[in-house]
Design a protein that fits this description.
Layout (H helix, E strand, L loop, with lengths): L1 H32 L1 H12 E6 L6 E2 L5 E13 L1 H7 L2 H12 L3 H8 L12 E2 L1 H4 L4 H18 L7 E10 L7 H4 L11 H5 L1 H5 L3 E6 L13 E3 L6 E4 L3 H18 L3 E8 L4 E8 L21 H4 L9 H10 L8 E3 L2 E4 L2 E4 L7 E3 H7 L2 H23 L17 E2 L6 H7 L6 E2 L2 H12 L3 E3 L4 E5 L6 E3 L4 E4 L3 H16 L17 E10 L7 E14 L6 E8 L8 H19 L24 E4 L8 H11 L3 E4 L7 E3 L5 E3 L4 E4 L16 H10 L3 E6 L2 E10 L2 E9 L1 H6 L16 H4 L19 E3 L6 H4 L23
Parallel strand pairs: 2-8, 25-28, 29-31
Antiparallel strand pairs: 1-6, 2-3, 3-4, 3-5, 6-7, 8-18, 9-10, 9-23, 11-14, 12-13, 13-32, 15-16, 17-20, 18-19, 21-22, 22-23, 24-27, 26-28, 30-31
Helix pairs in contact: 4-5, 4-7, 11-19, 13-15, 13-18, 14-18, 15-16
């Protein structure tokens, strides 16, 4: 018996010892071998990481006006358990449906949502319609929450919540939307500046790390770790909000009238290639990008950098420049217009030509034959291609926007007709609007091809360091003397009011240079022919011609009336943009030595400048007044503020004798319109342009009456103008009806459409091709020539190239 007891005792002792050894080994394994791993898991359990979201950088225009910001937003969340407990599902469903517009079935689904165990959830976000809602809707949801709490007599919880967040907001709505792009609901940058500069704009999130107990309360001796957020960089664009506004308004007016497929316009400073405005019609509101129907997604495409097209006669500027540079362009030499044979093809002018005319006349009339002779016969394929490449065609401009197209220059130098048609911008020549503008700006600025850009400076808000974008010169394409000669020739295309195809871009008081283009589009049925009823109408130019400050391209794709070419469809848009932008930029008009808009060639002489506008923006009103009085400068105060928020003309702008400076003491777009009676049309227009007011004028002279109204969300003012005598005496003076006392005609000063009479031919360089029995090979005939149509309905239409 004792032996059995000893054995049992020994066995039990052995088991206990073995268990103890196993326990020791397990403790050793956990504490020593896996100690660091378990420690890390423990730290994770009692450590809380709180993310500090970085603010996305602000985007402003060149003057500091906000164009993209982070704005407060709110998310709607539900607690199905609480909703079920108090039986308030129907009230929540109907209330949120009325506020958010979300389908009631979707709200009910979320309000009764269950987890995997079949239990009602305690938290459910209403993502459909309830994600990132604006302040006004959040206020309505808060009112509903208060009402529910009163209904169920609960002070703290009614099962409906709002959590604060932020979203990207575009204060100017549609303005410059194709430039800005947008971010989606998750904050991902999708297009435009937002996407191109996404890394700089988004910054990096920070965090706070601390220890807590089982209840989540922070421990008293918590060893906190703080990593600050690095907010995104702020971007200042080269875009000028006011010029952008002028541009889009001018486009909207023509878009409604012409009913085209699209309109594209780009405005730049040719001396820096700072983009001052870039717009497309149709457009979109980046705040409502998700409301655009699927069949209208093309509205998001920035045609200014992605739209590829045959430029037509605007491309003749390249050929002209090459001919001038090589001393081949003799303005007074003559040639036989009408048609010319090239490689078995006959290339035509419109109107069957004008007989024997000078090359300068051929430029003004946009004669295809003249440019075949200049580009094909004189320059030749090799030198023509050299200038095309030098001006940057066929490669991207390098603009700071995503998705830029490179275009294509594919003419075969050994196929004669391809070289000939390329000389006037047809056939195998495809470009983007921005490429065209960069090339023509090189002519305007003295021969330098510059890289266009949209960001003027980048500021790091964490360090305060600002980095400016330098002007980048790609190459010197031509010398300044050649550029000056080309500018003078292009000015005559506009100033010659008898035969100049660009005459509808003429602006009284400003020297304008430019070129129209009208190119018939290739058929989309795969036949390779050209569709006479579909064309791209364009105008490109700059002003003042002798000292360019602004360059603009306008492209109208498929105007509803195929007779509307570049002069009738695009030039009026150019005219309206430039006639408003130059005064806003402080560029003074010049006296015209008796010239009128009907004079054949406007000879201009600068007026005498008495002084320049001082810097007044940001100064107190009293200080500004004293400064102007001391300098003997007249001024007009507009608004009831005490600080100058804007001035016109801009600081440093030349002022002519007697010219007044407007001092704006409130936001010009929001303040009341002052009484303008007795003001000249020029002064009234300058002020109303700053206030972004749409203007309609009746009569000429000085403002006698003004009537305010609203339409399409805009303020409208109708000004009735009378002569000085009639304004004072109330008796009309018939001798002054034609021209106001200030010497300005209402058509050239007000925001009126230019005359688009069908009796005037806009771009005479329509062309056609034909072959005879002795024509060259089939390869030469295919897709090598194009047809261009001008605006005159009296012109017989030529047959376009036959392609197989």
């Amino acid at each position: 018996m004792n032996k059995r007891i000893r054995l049992r005792t020994l066995l039990m002792g052995g088991c206990i010892a073995l268990l103890f050894v196993v326990l020791v080994l397990r403790i050793f394994w956990l504490q020593i071998v896996q100690g660091s791993s378990w420690h890390e898991r423990a730290v994770e359990n009692w450590t809380q990481n709180s993310v500090i979201k970085a603010a996305r950088g602000t985007i402003t225009d060149r003057n500091g006006n906000e164009m993209a910001i982070d704005a407060p937003a709110y998310n709607v969340a539900l607690n199905p358990q609480i909703i079920d407990k108090y039986g308030i599902k129907d009230e929540i469903v109907s209330g949120l449906h009325e506020i958010l517009g979300t389908d009631e079935a979707e709200i009910e689904k979320q309000a009764t949502s269950k987890n995997d165990q079949g239990e009602l959830r305690t938290w459910r976000e209403l993502n459909t319609g309830g994600h990132l809602i604006a302040q006004d809707k959040a206020d309505q949801v808060n009112a509903l929450i208060t009402k529910l709490k009163q209904q169920i007599d609960q002070k703290y919880d009614a099962g409906l919540y709002l959590t604060e967040s932020s979203k990207r907001y575009y204060p100017q709505n549609e303005l410059a939307s194709h430039v800005l792009g947008y971010t989606d609901k998750e904050g991902k940058a999708v297009a435009g500046i937002e996407a191109y500069y996404d890394e700089q704009l988004k910054g990096s999130d920070g965090k706070i790390q601390y220890q807590h107990d089982r209840q989540g309360d922070k421990l008293p001796d918590s060893d906190d770790v703080y990593t600050p957020a690095q907010n995104g960089d702020n971007l200042k664009l080269t875009i000028d909000q006011t010029i952008q506004y002028y541009t889009e308004q001018a486009m909207k007016k023509q878009y409604a009238e012409l009913k085209p497929k699209s309109i594209t316009a780009i405005v730049a400073d040719p001396n820096t290639m700072n983009i001052l405005a870039m717009a497309n019609m149709p457009t979109f509101d980046p705040n409502k990008y998700n409301e655009v129907p699927a069949d209208q997604y093309s509205d998001f495409m920035n045609l200014g950098i992605k739209g590829i097209y045959e430029p037509g006669s605007t491309f003749k500027i390249v050929t002209l420049t090459g001919a001038v540079k090589e001393n081949l362009f003799n303005a007074d030499a003559t040639y036989q217009s009408g048609s010319i044979r090239v490689g078995g093809w006959t290339l035509h002018d419109s109107h069957t030509g004008w007989g024997a005319i000078t090359y300068l006349s051929g430029l003004k009339r946009s004669s295809n034959v003249a440019f075949v002779k200049l580009g094909y016969e004189m320059l030749g394929a090799e030198r023509l291609r050299k200038y095309i490449d030098a001006f940057g065609f066929g490669v991207k401009t390098g603009v700071d926007l995503p998705g830029e197209a490179s275009g294509a220059i594919n003419f075969n130098p050994n196929i004669k007709v391809e070289v000939a048609t390329a000389a006037y911008g047809h056939g195998k020549v495809q470009v983007t609007p921005l490429q065209q503008l960069a090339a023509v700006s090189a002519v305007a600025n003295g021969g330098k091809l510059l890289t266009p850009h949209l960001v003027q400076s980048i500021t790091n808000p964490n360090t305060g360091v600002t980095t400016d974008t330098p002007v980048h010169e790609v190459r010197q394409v031509i010398d300044s003397a050649t550029a000056a000669k080309v500018r003078s020739y292009l000015e005559q295309v506009v100033s010659d009011q008898e035969i100049g195809t660009g005459r509808q871009a003429y602006i009284e008081g400003y020297r304008v240079a430019g070129k129209t283009g009208t190119a018939i589009k290739v058929k989309t049925d795969g036949s390779g022919g050209y569709d006479k009823n579909k064309q791209v109408s364009s105008f490109i130019g700059f002003a003042p011609a002798n000292d360019p400050k602004i360059a603009v391209i306008v492209v109208v794709d498929e105007p509803a009336d195929p007779l509307y070419g570049g002069g009738k469809a695009a030039a009026p848009i150019f005219k309206e943009i430039v006639s408003q932008a130059l005064p806003y930029m402080g560029v003074a008009k010049v006296a015209e030595d008796g010239a009128t808009t009907q004079k054949k060639t406007a000879k201009v002489q600068p007026v005498q400048v008495a002084y320049t506008a001082p810097t007044l923006t940001g100064k107190g009103l009293d200080e500004a007044k004293k400064k102007l009085l001391a300098g003997g400068i007249a001024y007009t105060v507009v608004g009831s503020g005490t600080k100058i928020v804007k001035q016109y003309p801009a600081a440093g702008a030349p002022l002519v004798s007697g010219q007044s400076i407007y001092l704006m003491t409130e936001d010009p777009t929001k303040m009341a319109i002052p009484d303008l009676k007795g003001e000249s049309l020029r002064d009234a227009m300058q002020l109303l342009n700053l206030m972004k007011v749409q203007v309609t004028t009746v009569g000429t002279g000085y403002v006698a009456e003004q009537v305010e109204s609203e339409g399409n969300g805009r303020r409208i003012v109708t000004l009735t103008l009378k002569s000085a005598k009639a304004t004072v005496t109330g008796v009309d003076d018939p001798e002054e009806n034609a021209t106001g006392s200030d010497g300005k005609s209402t058509d050239d000063t007000a925001n009126s459409n230019a005359d688009t009479s069908n009796k005037e031919s806009d771009d005479s360089s329509s062309s056609s091709t034909s072959t005879d029995d002795s024509s060259s090979s089939t390869t030469e005939k295919s897709n090598s020539a194009t047809t261009q149509k001008e605006d005159n309905p009296e012109t017989s239409e030529e047959e376009e190239a036959s392609t197989n």
